[in-house]
Amino acid sequence: MPGGSVTDTPEVRSAAVRLADATFRGVTVPPVRDLIGPDDVRLAYAVQRIGTRERLAAGARVVGRKIGLTSPAVQQQLGVDQPDFGVLFDDMDVTETSAAQRPRLLQPKIEAELAFVLGADLDTDQLDAMSVRGAVEYAVAALEIVDSRIADWDISFADTVADNASSGWFVLGAQRLSLDDFAPREIAMNMTIDGEIVSTGTGSACLGDPLNALAWLARATREFGDPLRTGEVILSGALGPMAPLLPGARIHSEIFNGAVTLGSVDFTLGLPGAEAGER
């Protein structure tokens, strides 16, 4: 995992401009791998860091991070052997945001996850599943609405990393769960759209344990010089397959520990022109 300052090359800058233009104009763009290569981790994160820097300069606030590519099947599909991560900004949290006020999406898909909220910084040399567990204040059921600025989701590893790990929005459930009461690797999940089950999964599908994913992220961000901090929301990775998301869709997801429902989360994707107040 690369660290240090942004690699400032004409190719990296051009890739960042291409992705920023997609967001500004609300249109998809060709992949950026023609500029930075399909699997150059260092250059891909350099593009992402430029995008992050520009969002912060425009007034956005970082509220957490997201982990992607935690599924072995997806890693195999893209020919990679590691997850990736992106930055969560304040406007991505649409838990309480009316449909009319949400940022624009281009090609949304949805996946169910377990989110962690940190009660302590993760900035030490010892960062494994056991050590990061103690930094979790609570967990919640979560939905991540992923998106891609790359046309037709035609992405390589470098494309998705550069595009802030194909980030879009996220929604958090209301029930705060203590890790004293359950083991994340043992949970099960189902997600429905308009009452039909579209995804099922388990905690063990997320790098073997969502806490493994959190530990990986803690090490990676610390190496970048930007460690995880108290209060940040961490989307730990999909528990099952993602599903397409169409306007008006009503999503419900639950996480279980055996026969016990631990938490749930609901979300409705507003129709075009939705009035403020629709959730």
Would you mind describing this structure in some detail?
With 279 residues, the protein is of the alpha+beta class. 25% of the residues lie in helices and 27% in strands. The chain has seven helices and eleven strands. Strands 1, 2, 3, 4, 5, 8 and 9 form a seven-stranded mixed beta sheet that branches. A four-stranded antiparallel beta sheet has the order 7-6-10-11, with no helix packed on it.
Quote the distance from N terminus to C terminus.
Answer: 38 Å
Reported for the largest beta sheet, the result is: 7 strands, mixed
Overall geometric form: globular
Main structural class? alpha+beta
Given the structure, what is the number of helices?
A: 7
What series of H and E elements makes up the topology?
Answer: HHHEHEEHEHEEEHEEEE
Number of strands: 11
**Unreliable spans:** 1-5, 274-279
Give the topology, please:
Elements: H1 10-25, H2 33-36, H3 41-57, E1 62-68, H4 72-78, E2 84-89, E3 109-118, H5 129-133, E4 136-146, H6 157-162, E5 169-172, E6 188-193, E7 196-202, H7 210-223, E8 233-238, E9 243-244, E10 250-257, E11 260-268
Parallel strand pairs: 1-8
Antiparallel strand pairs: 1-2, 3-4, 3-8, 3-9, 4-5, 6-7, 6-10, 10-11
